[in-house]
Specification:
Elements (H helix, E strand, L loop, with lengths): L9 H25 L5 H19 L1 H5 L3 H24 L5 H8 L2 H13 L5 H19 L7 H24 L4 H24 L10 H22 L5 H8 L1 H14 L5 H19 L3
Amino acid sequence: MEKLKPPLNVWQADALLALCAFFWGLGFVWMKEALSVYPTFWLLFFRFTGGTFLMLAFFPKRIAGFSGSDLTGGVVIGVFLFVGMGVQTLGLNYTTAGKQAFITAGYVIMVPLLLWGLRRVFPGWAAMAGSLICFAGIGLLTSDASGALNAGDVLTVIAALFFAAHIISIGCYAKNGDPFVLAFVQLLVTSVLSLCAALIFNGPFVPRGTQGLLEVAYVTVFSTFICFLIQNVAQKRAPPAHASILLSLESVFGALCGIVILKEDFTSRMAAGCCLIFAAVLLVELKKE
């Protein structure tokens, strides 16, 4: 695996981002289940520590050749990731997996607006239109998902803002950096910060035996190691606004998994929202930037 190269074809990059969205969508369900066993920050510590060791096991030579800019970029990306993941996981204690998947995808509108407002980079009319259509779809999904706004939903909105910053920062540093090193450093940073937060807010870890091990294994291997690696690789080709729309498919996959596995409700309004999100994806795919 040391010889893997970032995909040079934009369609391959898009396929990787869609795969990432699927794993993350399913991950909402497993995280919800794992939270019934592990405290928030201990769960994040195990998840990202496992992902860090997997990166070391599969790509030791690649990681050993890190540069100063990759190290700096990885730290910045990792801080955004830790705050986003911490707030999101905390919020998942108070809302449903499907609803959180919808709200988290709000970063799809935040990314192009932040790019335009902070960096004066206009993402293109197709990306802007796609983001607005996608946001409308998320609005339909969220408005009919398991009741009124609650504390978990508010925390998830805050998390979405940090995930938007995370996507933008990856686009900035991965363009000229090594995505494998960036992925490793951000996982390591998130692991260390999660340990600090766990000791402060959750206290000493209490072993749970074999409870929750399957859920932790899934989010460690698929939602962490595989997803953050392929996101960094794919974003060498996909612009941040484009990537955010493809990654927003996690809201659809999360909803479907919540329905099938957790037996959460699904209505015609939510179905219409899913259709709008797919329309947004088609728009950016048919008009490449």
